[in-house]
Design goal:
mainly alpha; Arc Repressor Mutant, subunit A
Amino acid sequence: MTSGSQVEHFRDDSSGSRFNIGRLDEMTHTNTVDEAKLNQFIGQMLGDLGGASSIAMVRIGDALGFYKTLHTKGPMTCEQLAKTAKVNERYLREWLSHQAASNYLTYDPKSATFALPPEQAMVFANEESPVYMMGGFDLMAALLDNQPKVQAVQIGPGCGLGRPSRVHVLQSTRAGPVGCVGRPRRRST
């Protein structure tokens, strides 16, 4: 590709739709872009964004007891789980659909039931499991919650000690280590 080229590049998705990824020469500082590498990187970023969006959904499932309920009671319809968990069925359906699409739950269209497979139960419902990962989802949320503190340190004013970081609050509510970023420290003058 030469500088000043007006060739537009497209990427096909699995449905055959084409997405315009723009005029690569206008977006880069170099004259050549390896489109295969770019597409691979875009795929990686989309996967990362999908994973990031799952953090809140997984934490909702944990906080409202959906995983543990499905683990102990077995496959349930949306209506059954909504009644058991005392939540709005419409919103629960959205959550269940996301979880099934993410392969965190399974869905049986014949019985219209959702289930937590035993492997996923070890990650989401069994706190004694060596691969129980709910604390990891809490840690990721804490890192996002602490982003303003990171920026405050970078800009210069630092962080006050009046309020503990969210990571410390989570450590006191979870069995086992969640991870520690330490308390914010005052800058020396």
